[in-house]
Amino acid sequence: MNNNYRIIDLIRRNRSPHENHLIDGLVDGRVSRRDFIRHGSLLGVSLPLLSRISAVAGFGGLPSLARAQGTPGATIRVASSTPAAAIDPMTTSDGSGYLMLQQAGEYLCLDGPDLVLRPQLAESWKPNDTGTVWTFKLRKGVKFHSGGEMKADDVVASIDRLADPANASNALSVFAGILPKGATRKVDDYTVEFRLDGPNGNFPYMVSSDNYNAVIIPASYKGDYENSFDGTGPFKLEKYTPKVGASFVRNDDYWGEKAVPVRTEFTFVADEQSAILALQGGQVDIINTISALAAIGLFNDPNFDILSVKSSLHNQLHMRCDSDRFKDPRVRRAIALMLDRDKLVSGLMKGRAVPGNDSPFAPVYPSTDTSVPQRKQDIGQAKQLMEAAGMGKGFKVTLTTEHLIEIPEYAQLIQNWVKEIGVGLELNILDQGSYYGDGAFGKSNWLDSVMGITDYGHRGVPNVLLAAPLTSVGTWNAAHFKNKDYDTLVSSYIAALDLEAQNAAAGKIQNLLLEETPVIFGYFYDALVPTAKGVTGVQPTATGQLFLDKASKA
Question: What predicted TM-score, i.e. pTM, was given to this entire model?
Answer without folding.
Answer: 0.92
